Amino acid sequence: MHAACMPERPIYRANSGGPSSRTRNELISSTLLGREDGPIHCPRHLCLALDFGSVDPVTESTRLLHEAGFLSPEALRILFGQDARPMVCQLTPALQPLMVAGADRMEVLRQAFLLGLCTSVRFDPARPVLWTQASLTRRLELFDVTEFYA
Predict the structure, then answer these.
(1) pLDDT of residue 49
(2) Is the confidence at residue 14, as pLDDT, over 70?
(3) Residues of 84-98 as b/e, b for ≥16 C-beta within 10 angstroms?
């Protein structure tokens, strides 16, 4: 493209208010997630984390689903999706996962169903249940933000 045809880009300038010898870096870290007191409430609603060991998460979840008599992960909405509402998710690798081997099948299916409705940042009960290796192995905390946006 010829230079005359290029759109002119805006120029942005910033001033820290002092000479460069007085600049500094500040790490600011804060969150509203998990707060149950004060004017803004975003309480933690639940934690989801499954450990499938060396078996494939999708294959094992599907096996457990069929053993329980369900045809698809969507069928689990009847049991586990009735009161679900959108929430914010936070990846939390330090969460202690439920070991799938030897665990209660219905608890594994409940968590797998809910994980299938999550991305890494959002729980959306209106989306289809997607079981992938990534979705089933996430360790998530889910936070209720309805009061924050109300």
Answers:
(1) 97
(2) no
(3) eebbbbbeeeeeeeb
